[in-house]
Amino acid sequence: MSIEKVILEAKNIQSDRLKNINFTLHEGEIITLIGPSGAGKSSLLMLLNRLEDPNEGTIHYLGKDINEYPLEQLRKRIGMVFQSSSLFEGSVEDNLKFGPSLFDEWKPERGKELLEVVQLPKEYLDKNVEELSGGEQQRIAFARTLANKPEILLLDEVTSALDVKNVELIERFLKEIVPNQVKAMMMVTHDIEQAKRLGNRTFFMNNEEIVEQGRTSQVLEAPKTNTLQAFLKE
Amino acid sequence: MAPEISNVSMFFLVFFVLIPVSLSYFYALGLSKSIFWSSFRGVTQLFLIGYVLTYLFSLEPLTGISIMLTVMIVVAALHASKKGQGIPFVRSITFLVIVLIEIFVLVMWLGFDMISFQPDQVIPMSGMVIGNSMVAIGLALERMKSEFKEGKGKIIAALALGAKPEQASKILVRKIVKASMIPNVDGLKTIGLVQLPGMMTGLILGGVAPIEAIRYQIVISLSIFASVSLSAMLVTVIFYRFFFNKNQQMIQMKES
Fold first, then answer.
1. Domain for residue A227, yes or no?
2. A101 found inside a domain
3. A234: distance to nearest CA of chain B, Å?
4. Which residue of B has its CA nearest to A48?
5. Helix axes B32-58, B61-81, angle to 10 degrees
6. Residues of B with CB under 8 A from a CB of A
7. Contact A96, A112 (CB under 8 A)
8. Which of A49, A53, A84 sits opposite B160 (nearest CB)?
9. A139: closest CA of chain B, how far (Å)
């Protein structure tokens, strides 16, 4: 992994909810973040597309400080999907075109392509989002973020409210889109098995810090710290 | 001229107060004290305003109107802005919005000769417009706080897709303006069918022919409609930005 290109690098990050954060994200990689609630996992993701800002430290994206990118461009290129689908009122198409329309990049045929990626029939384009099931709504939320053609994807417990079938489906297309459509991905999950299934590397966070980081198999199968050992036993 | 209600007749209104008081006593509602107090306060306020208006009507129109409008606008702004506690500059901006609305209706009324610049016309008409705008602004502010709280996930999702605060807020602004306008839209639909509107009732009691009275009612109803929509819209498009910081991140609003 070390020979792969670094696309994101966080150095000495301190924020109201995070301490001492240092890590790199490489091209083609999926990092899974695990840890108890309140550990700072979601806050960490939100720093990367500047939905929050750190008090100290720097984050470089493709070698350039993220503060130097126009905010809208940064958020377009580092897309994020949340635990709750948070779809906007209106049709599936209204949601899919929201992002691209902000940059005058929407093409109507893109709607069908996106539905194909998340394995929903193209007839869904005109459906009102309120008619969709929870799993379908979350898949639309994914498609809405992918519509912006992000280079990095941040996922915050995106499958925690879904049934097994939807979780499997989402995991399958996550494996497909990295690195074909998205260069790298960081995902917060409360499901250790999911972290194993998807992660190349895993970060264990506790008390606002990254306590352990390394290859997923190493971190989860041979935990070094007592806190991680205790967490894995829970 | 309207028939005068004698002091003796007025005295018998006590019975109207006694009914809710007895109910409160009978069902142990514990409201007797506040019923007495609010009735007493209401009656006193109305007598006082009766004297104040009599005095103001006797002054030069410009003086009388200026004094009363200033009081009305200040009280309305203070009252409406209470619903937006925690939002920066809420008092001063609410005040300015109401001033703007009042100027707008005055220009329309006087410019098109709907009423004349006399205290007995400008003050009651303005009072209705300012009062209704106050309610609409209060509703818009209250709704705004709750929508931004409940809709936080959607706003953050929109920001994360690259939307500017203005674009992200659009999804909620529409809802807020609509919610603040609905009471007036509904009110206009049944106007005159369920209850005769206050102004028209007053004019009819004062001896004005119904067909004349409705003209005034139409002027005031539509003025209220316009000012309510305008105030809800202005307040919403001005205040949404205070829910974001300069880095286009959502700010946690302090609870009131």
1. yes
2. no
3. 30
4. B160
5. 150
6. 153-154, 156-164, 167, 171, 247-249
7. no
8. A49
9. 14
Task: Tell me, yes or no, whether A142 lies in a domain.
Answer: no
d(C-alpha A44, C-alpha A15), whole Å: 9
Before A179, cis peptide (omega within 30)? Answer: yes
Q: What is the CATH number of the domain that holds A186?
A: 3.40.50.300
Which residue range is the domain that position A65 belongs to? 6-14+21-89+152-165+173-232
| Host H or E run for residue B10 | helix B7-11
DSSP 3-state assignment of A154? strand
Nearest to A83 by CA among A163, A160, A186: A160
Q: What is the reported pTM?
A: 0.84
Q: Which residues pair with A209 in a beta bridge?
A: A206
pLDDT > 90: what percent of chain A? 89
Rg (CA), chain A: 18
pLDDT tens column, A69-115: 999 999 999 999 999 999 999 999 999 999 999 999 999 999 999 99
Structure tokens at B192: 């005159």
A72:B164 CB<8 A: yes
* The total number of structural domains that make up chain A: 1
Nearest to A75 among B153, B160, B171 (CB): B160
Please tell me which of the candidates A76, A79, A98 has its beta carbon nearest to residue B158.
Answer: A98
Pairs across A and B, CB distance < 8 A:
60
Nearest-Cα distance to chain B for A102, in Å, is 7
Six token digits for residue B155: 């706003």
Residue A1 has pLDDT above 70, yes or no: no
What are the distances in angstroms from CA B195 to CA A139, B3, B16? 52, 22, 20
Give contacts of A52 with chain B, Cβ < 8 Å.
249
Contact state of A88 with B153 under an 8 Å Cβ cutoff: no
Each domain of chain B, given as residue ranges in start order, spans 1-58, 60-243
Per the DSSP assignment, residues forming a β-bridge with A56 are A14
Q: Which segments of B190-209 does DSSP mark as H helices, in order?
A: 198-205
Residue in chain A nearest B157 by alpha carbon: A86
* Residue B80 and residue B235 in contact, taking contact as beta carbons nearer than 8 Å: no
